[in-house]
Amino acid sequence: MRDVCVVGLGLIGGSVLRAAAKAERQVWGAARSEEDVAAARAEGFDATTSLPEALSRAAERDAIVVIAVPLTAVESVLSDVAEHAPRVLLTDVVSVKQPVQEIVRRAVPEARFVGGHPMAGTAESGWSAGRADLFDGAAWALCLAHGTELAWWAEIAHLALELGAQVVPVTPELHDAAVARISHLPHVLAAVLAAVGAEAGPLTLSLAAGSFTDGTRVAGTRVDLVRAMTEGNRAALLPALDAALGMLGAARGSLASTGSLAATIEAGHEARRALAALRAAASTSVRIDLRAPDAAEALLALGEQGGRITEVEGGAAIGRVPGPSEQ
Amino acid sequence: MRDVCVVGLGLIGGSVLRAAAKAERQVWGAARSEEDVAAARAEGFDATTSLPEALSRAAERDAIVVIAVPLTAVESVLSDVAEHAPRVLLTDVVSVKQPVQEIVRRAVPEARFVGGHPMAGTAESGWSAGRADLFDGAAWALCLAHGTELAWWAEIAHLALELGAQVVPVTPELHDAAVARISHLPHVLAAVLAAVGAEAGPLTLSLAAGSFTDGTRVAGTRVDLVRAMTEGNRAALLPALDAALGMLGAARGSLASTGSLAATIEAGHEARRALAALRAAASTSVRIDLRAPDAAEALLALGEQGGRITEVEGGAAIGRVPGPSEQ
């Protein structure tokens, strides 16, 4: 088992550090925030404010380096990687994948890179919000891009599984389109809903209950983090916003002209049912030989069907895809 | 203490029945659903499928009648009220207030009516989803309309407080405008978000985590209930939809042209902070003499400031308004 070096000790990086330690990996962390480093050390973890030191150690031990900083800080961290660990086995947990892939290709072309994104988080941030069990049962998107070697992918998948997650093989493009709809659009809609409610004053907020509280929860996330992830996925977020605007405009038009919201409410109900059905679905076990020539295609097909990899062992990835189902 | 007759034994009516029994009121229920009535009886409650029987008993004992059916069924229930208990002390828990007020005026003009709306609920529905503690700490909007006598209002407020809620005095107009923003718009946005996510297929839903799950939760509510409340509040919902469309369109335009979502994300964050601040705010105790000539105005002013009534006793309403505060 390779050692692990985590760069960035916020919610996600701090949780990776804790979960990797719990999985008995040798793990150390680095962050620019003296506060996060001091907090990690106070809890007995190996952490430093010196990125060069942490990265040199990673190069020396051929460790996995996990980049866990916001998109806006990736370029700067990668210039340190290029200097101190240019050929390292590298992954990241940033919420957009095409932009990171491009920066990596430019900044550390010789790194063995596999982009990743654990679908876990809270409205909280920083070291103190992290937990060793943050990834338990969560999906961990892991990219197969042009040039990704399956041996690297399998090693990072193994780490993600050890941290408690289930791995979803995906291309950077499909990942970014998906998170635009299920992560970035929810943040924008939560902001809009919160603002429309609050602009009506205290009586309105005083009457707010479950539907408003749930619908606006992620609007409490730190502004810089939300901006980094939404603005960083601009190309994929624009069509998702257009889809939402189109559907909301159609709802408005239908309510004004006919008094009916049937199409909107039914589509939403059916979609929520599909989500519940996917989560509860019977599933079929799948075994993919990672040495087979079509292994990458098989992994991506599994991801596109809503499947997940739950084990990587002996040169094979074992997982489940939804179905057979009565839907 | 007056007896209570609850018409409709779904989530809200069933919870009123349970909570009123717990508060040691004499209470009985009536519903058209044989299933709900059988379930209520099986748990030891006094329930019947005969509305005329339940309402005649209410007239005889001068009980409070609580209408707890969807808006679309109100007219039909009120024709029974007009026949069997035309001058009863009447309230309702329907999610829109102007339409109910108008139907009551037309159908049972002699009833002593005070419209109400407890801000509590779940995505579940039916008798089995109800709970005696559903209203604990919840806001219960209670209308002061033209012609509402404060003595009636105080009696219904007393009942709502006994059920565990806090009472928000409000006009039907302000209520409907407020719930359009904090209840009906969240349902429409949840439906839009769910549909935009699901139309992208199983990979997208497989990656969905907290922000999508929370943002779409209320899309799981029964379609007929959501349609009844949103379509029933059409006049107030249209401007709320326009506000959301305007803000979402501005976000889209800004992202496309400048790459920034700053204005949207900041407004949403500030609004969510305002919600948290209102809930955590220091508050000042207020006592309103219900026999004073300006009592109704004082109650409505308290509601508009985000205040709540927590006690009705000895001809006075006692409550709290937010502030002083450091905001």
Secondary-structure topology with pairs:
The structure is a homodimer of 327-residue chains.
Chain A: E1 4-7, H1 11-22, E2 27-30, H2 34-42, E3 47-48, H3 51-61, E4 64-67, H4 71-84, E5 89-92, H5 98-107, E6 112-118, E7 139-143, H6 150-162, E8 166-170, H7 172-198, H8 202-207, H9 210-216, H10 223-231, H11 234-258, H12 262-280, E9 283-289, H13 295-304, E10 308-313, E11 316-322
Organism (chains A, B): Thermocrispum agreste
GO molecular function (chains A, B): NAD+ binding; prephenate dehydrogenase (NAD+) activity; prephenate dehydrogenase (NADP+) activity
Keywords (chains A, B): Oxidoreductase
Throw out a few tags for this protein:
6-phosphogluconate dehydrogenase C-terminal fold; 327 residues; 11 strands; 8-stranded mixed sheet; alpha/beta; 3 domains; 3-stranded antiparallel sheet; Rossmann fold; homodimer
Helicity of chain A, as a percent range: 40-55%
CATH superfamily of the largest domain in chain A: NAD(P)-binding Rossmann-like Domain
Low-confidence stretches of chain A: none
CATH class group of the largest domain in chain A: Alpha Beta
Spatially, the strands of the biggest sheet of chain A line up as 3-2-1-4-5-6-7-8
Q: Got a strand count of chain A?
A: 11
> N-to-C SSE series of chain A?
EHEHEHEHEHEEHEHHHHHHEHEE
- Kindly report the greatest chain-chain contact and the residue count on each side: A-B, 100 and 101 residues
Strand content of chain A: 15-25%
Please explain how this structure is put together.
The structure is a homodimer of 327-residue chains. The first copy, chain A, has 3 domains: 4-170, Rossmann fold (3-Layer(aba) Sandwich); 176-250, 6-phosphogluconate dehydrogenase C-terminal fold (Orthogonal Bundle); 281-322, no CATH class. Chain A contains 13 helices and 11 strands. Chain A has helices spanning 11-22, 34-42, 51-61, 71-84, 98-107, 150-162, 172-198, 202-207, 210-216, 223-231, 234-258, 262-280, 295-304, and strands at residues 4-7, 27-30, 47-48, 64-67, 89-92, 112-118, 139-143, 166-170, 283-289, 308-313, 316-322. In chain A, the strands form 2 sheets. An 8-stranded mixed beta sheet of chain A has the order 3-2-1-4-5-6-7-8, sandwiched between helices. The model of chain A has no long low-confidence stretch (mean pLDDT 95). The interface between A and B is large, with 100 and 101 residues.
